[in-house]
Amino acid sequence: MANGKPNEPQDESKRRFLKYAGTAVGGLVVGGVVGGLIGANSKAGNEASPAPSPSGSTPAAPSDRDFNQALMYFNQDQFQTAEAAAERIFPADDLGPGAKELGVAFFIDHQMASAYGMNARDYMSPPFHPGEAYQGYQLTFKRQELMALGLDALNEYSQDKFKSKFAKLTPENQDAVLTAFETNEVHLKGVPAGTFFNMLRALTIEGVYADPLYGGNKNMGGWKMRSYPGNQMSYFDVIEKEGLVKLEPLSLHDHLTS
Amino acid sequence: MATKLPKTDVVVVGMGWVGGVIAAELTKAGHSVVGLERGKMRTTSDYYHVHDELRYANRYELMQDLSKETVTYRNNEKIAALPMRSYGSFLLGDGLGGAGVHWNGQYFRFLPYDFQIRTKTVERYGKSKIPDGMTLHDWGITYDELEPYFVKWEQMAGISGDPTTTEHVGKMSKPFPTAPMKETPGMKLFVEAAKKLGYHPYRMPSANLSVNYKNPDGIERAACQYCGFCERFGCEYGAKADPCVTVIPVAQNTGKLDLRTYANVTEIVHDGKKASGVRYVHMPTGEEYIQPAEVVVMASYVFNNVRTLLLSKLGKPYDPKTQSGVVGKNYCYQVNGASTAAFYEDKEFSTFMGAGALGAVLDDFNGDNFDHTDLKFLHGANISFTQTGLRPIEYNPTPAGTPAWGAAFKQASIKYANRVLKVSAQGSCMPWRHHYLDLDPTYKDSLGRPLVRMTFDFEDQDKELVKFLAAKTKEIADQMGAAKTEMNDKLSTYNIVPYQSTHNTGGTIMGSDPGDSVVNSYLQMWDAENVFVCGASVFGHNSGYNPTATVGALSYRAAEGVLKYLQKGGSLA
């Protein structure tokens, strides 16, 4: 890397970023831009997947205990229900881990406690009218309310049908319950079953594949299964290659240098 | 009580592409400009952690906060409009640079045919070809008149593209300033297949730089790294042309731009003939200000250009019943949906790599490049294969019949994650008497002002277009050596839920007649000579292309108009 070149950006965070990006720094920084990132055409740009901690000062090594795995919104019962349901949506198999091992239920819990769970950036002003399907979501429920009511409904329906809580059912019976929700055959406490199921499905996929910083995709296990390399700074030198280019995945955590 | 501020030469409402171009050109000419942006400040360093699909693509980090302001929507006048409560069909930009920050960078000049679409359609097919209710409209400017402004924009942004163009597009007086982007294995398959069929593919012109580039204003930017995070993301390299790394710094360097963020313009202040300035609210404090100016430039997105005129009672509101008035008329969108996915068994592709404007395209079935005599639609689409960088939350392709969840879904979605290439058509959208924008009678924004209401649906014209173009995408995909292909050729009722396109157009259309347009060919308002309304809201219809090239060229044209007006005054038409 040509880090010794003159006229490096003076801003410290910018400098670290460029170092991470594996690109050489040229002479000119213009218009508030990270200008002169020449890596593209120089030898220095060849390191498309730089070492995770270029500064040599690595964030603390992961211990066996993941302190992020605790609850922000769910109670334990809701957590277990969500975990069991997510595992059926994205089960463990020969290809690799399922939703449970990937921490998807923690992801969902954390999302429900976030601005997203509270619809902070959605238009939630009245009046509310049902409207046509093609006019989109028109319910008064916030996502976290719909989630809590939906999980309760999963258990209630499981009790009615199979005399047990959802998490204790056989996988086959869990699938039958989820299918009944998906196809809107369930009518409990005014919970829109299909809408709840679609939200749970979408959150499960997000929890499998979002950056591990959000609590799911543990150890980038979701990405590894499909050879997705995560947060890479440049594919300049490999994008023309035939076939699937396999790279060790990087997360945003790898991007944070001290 | 609003605070009255000192007068400026020009006040610009909205600091995206249009506002940036106008601020740069006017300040370079020595005029003082106040730029009002309702969102926050943005710089490249905000994007050092931008490779975050959840935050930017799924939670819409860069988009307008809908809790404060949204649009309402209905398919036709018989039903009640309801608010778009969360994002779906299109994404509204916010903050410095606006939607110009999170675009893909796909760059296409509209066709010569587009600017004179009514005249050319009647010439070739006769008046009866235009169906009843289609308000087809000439733009009051020709391609040749607009050509120099396209060149200007291309030099500023450093557009990367093939040095020669096909016969299907307008002539270029100057080639693109930088070489085309790289060619991926998927692009090669598409290009070879299209050529075999006798079509004319070319490399998609790109606002993501293929090489390092210094523009005529002295702005230097770095080459694209193909990281795959363009659409919905900002570019940490400044490789994607964006107002914050091109025109806005040029304006700032003159010392003549007074840029104010969180400044939400609520009204153009006027006496019925001329504007005296604008009223705005500083959103964090709620303080109100009046900014007097010689010239007011409306440079916000389509919906807010229309809404601000209507709320300010400037211009004549369009009435679909009487066919009178113009503000809100000819709202158009983009007709997507025609596509074919090619599934491979023995081949994999690194489709997670890419750039927003990396791809190959053809225009053999765009505009009037083919005979429409026996077809039940006008115009067409461009057909493309793009490699924009497929991300894992969004992109889980499975063959038809695969369940949406469970073991079979997991297996198929992982198997095909790197084994599908898609050929798609981006269709044009024609204007209709009953597609328009007006003020919603019920729903309000966080300041208590009516939201804009959109009345729109897909027509038979659009369904026929999709059916025809889908067959062409399949024809090409079938030549790409896949194990199987799956075509989509159905278009149903317009649905605001799934994402489709952020190419909304119309509502303040340009033209040569004050009776059927809001602005003239300099984007100067017929009803108020010192108000210029700019952006895709001036389009008479939407072409089979991304709109930014044409928005950009018209911005340079408008900047010239504002300069002329400041020198001489009066109507420029």
Give structural notes.
The complex is a heterodimer of chains A (258) and B (573). Chain A is built from 8 helices and 2 strands; from the N terminus they run αααααββααα. With 258 residues, chain A is mainly alpha-helical. Chain A is globular. Chain B is of the alpha/beta class. Chain B has one domain (7-47, 56-62, 93-568): FAD/NAD(P)-binding domain, CATH 3.50.50.60. In chain B, the strands form 5 sheets. In chain B, strands 1, 2, 3, 9, 10, 11, 12 and 22 form an 8-stranded mixed β-sheet that branches. In chain B, strands 6-15-16-17-14-20 form a 6-stranded antiparallel β-sheet. The relative contact order of chain B is 0.20. Chains A and B meet through helix 1, helix 5, helix 6 and helix 7 of A and helix 2, strand 5, strand 8, helix 7 and helix 9 of B.
Topology:
The complex is a heterodimer of chains A (258) and B (573).
Chain A: H1 12-21, H2 76-89, H3 104-112, H4 143-162, H5 171-182, E1 187-188, E2 191-192, H6 193-209, H7 221-225, H8 252-255
Antiparallel strand pairs in A: 1-2
Helix pairs in contact in A: 2-3, 3-6, 4-5, 4-6, 5-6
Chain B: E1 3-4, E2 8-13, H1 17-28, E3 33-36, H2 53-58, E4 71-74, E5 82-83, H3 112-115, H4 117-125, H5 143-157, H6 185-196, E6 202-203, E7 213-214, E8 220-221, H7 247-253, E9 257-260, E10 263-270, E11 275-282, E12 287-298, H8 302-311, E13 329-332, E14 339-343, E15 359-362, E16 381-386, H9 407-415, E17 420-427, E18 436-444, E19 450-455, H10 460-477, E20 484-488, E21 505-507, E22 531-533, H11 548-568
Parallel strand pairs in B: 1-12, 2-3, 2-12, 3-9, 4-19, 12-22
Antiparallel strand pairs in B: 4-5, 6-15, 7-8, 10-11, 11-12, 13-21, 14-17, 14-20, 15-16, 16-17, 18-19
Helix pairs in contact in B: 1-7, 1-11, 5-11
Keywords (chain A): Membrane, Transmembrane, Transmembrane helix
InterPro entries (chain A): Gluconate_2DH_su3 (IPR027056), TAT_signal (IPR006311)
Biased composition (Low complexity) (chain A): 48-62
